[in-house]
Amino acid sequence: MNSELNGLQPPVCLTHNIMGSPPAAFHLILLGDMFYDQSLATSLHILIGDPGRAQFEEHAIRRLLRPLAQFELPDSVREENYGLSCSGVWNYTPEL
Asked: Which domain of life is it from (predicted)?
């Protein structure tokens, strides 16, 4: 409905497991509800972005994350986010 309201083509939505399939021409793949199966969850390569919120910094998942990049936030974003000054991108690494 959002795509229609904004005059865009709706995104491609697949409902089957594409792991192990030949790569397609996707720029971004969004996943939901993927941690119900241990072997599937372990095979995923997941990137997580967060500007250092306390809930993220203190979460147990942090021991399974490896930092990949850090970006300075623009002043307007800093103001909107209570002074957080940078955002990090983390790689989910379940084998740690």
From this structure: Eukaryota
